[in-house]
Specification:
Helices cover 5% and strands 21% of the residues. The chain contains 3 helices and 30 strands.
Amino acid sequence: MKTATIIVLVVLFAGCNRSGVPVLLDDIRGVPDGIVVRDGVGSDTSQGQDSIEPDDTAIDTLPDTLPDTLPDTSPDTEPAPDIIQDTGSPPAGCCETAGDCDDGEICVNTAGGAFGACLAPAPEWECWSDDDCGTNAPCIAEAPDYQPLAVACGQVPDEPGYCKGLYSYCCWADSDCPEVDIGPNLFCIGLGVGPFGGVCVPVPVEGQCYTDDECEESFVCQAGYYCPCGMDCMPGLGAPGVCIPPGFLCCHSDPYCPYGTTCKGEGFGVAGVCKGDPPGGGCWETGDCPDGQYCQGGSMCPCGAMCFMADVPGICVPIEENACGDGPVDATGLGTPCPGGNTDCEGLDASMCSYGVSSDPSLPPICTRYCNTLNPCGEQAFCIDWGWSSSCIPNDCKQEFLASCTSDSQCKIGTKYDICCPCPAAYTTAEIAADPCIYEDGTPWPPPYLDCLPEDCDDFCEPCAFPAAADCQNNKCVPIWDEV
């Protein structure tokens, strides 16, 4: 029976390895001679024995070298570390209701945790949850996520999200762009450029582009532009540019340029060129000059152009306060006279001559630049409201430019309430937008601008005639009267 006892012990301890996984007996080394294994069962082939019966007393002789404990193979059921689970009462800074938060805080839980997070209300135009958005829900995270904002105790995003419905003209994938029956298909461009999403633009033909992404490798997109989602410009504004090959040394920033050169002349949709330091302390643009000076004169061959004259650097000159059209009013070169058109503004940050914005020949031609809420003008200038072409104008030129028009669509009838007897008159849309005391389209009742009226208005006002419309004539808005 001694032999049988040994065999039973082998069978018992060979049935499973330490991990609890069954093993076959033929994997075990050192099986006594005369024992064969068939289908995992041992049998004795020695003379005179048909089978071997196990000895029940062998159980009492198990070795004392077995491990005290076996590895824990139970599944991991610990909660995710970023969301606090229910422990009975909310931890500090967390909540079940707004009553758990400090005064002025709200309880936000959109991630499905047991508790929410106590947060200050989101600023205007932003959100922590769909409740902040109302009909403009859902509340989604800024780029590059664009997913519903998830907030809970222990899981608070670095920034609030935004209400997707406020940006209905934007897109977050090509599938958001509408199908078109005529013309090129639309695709979503600008994802990740700003926080809010992209915009739908027509697919450019080969060789055209909005950004470098539509060009061949090492080519640079020149003069392609579009209105990014969330920017204060006209939705749908944009046009493709042209892909320029590498030999022209075009650039959008310094990393485009070879060692020892930097990118000069780049701007809104416009590629610059890689230039070395100008000789003799000159300048290619105002950024090359010390504070309080701007770059005057000079010229550079634009990206992609074939020029037959060598580039000429400008010189740094002090900024002086000047009357309208007499000289620049800030470091961008804004207000620099440009009687020769845009070429006089080359190298300036204000690289667009006012001829390109307003064709009124009575206005002094000055260098200006586009502006909006994200790109405001300096202290000595204001942003004149001309729609997508809104531009910075020196304060000294304010009234001259505000009162100028180039089309009938820029003229409206309005009532100005800063006089004792306000009567309707013809104004430009820019004048109306710039003056809070002008009410468009007639005289409402009660007057909305009582703060505009002088305090000593005691005289009786005669009834006012009401013009039928306003037209632009000789670059000035004039009233149009009904024919009698």
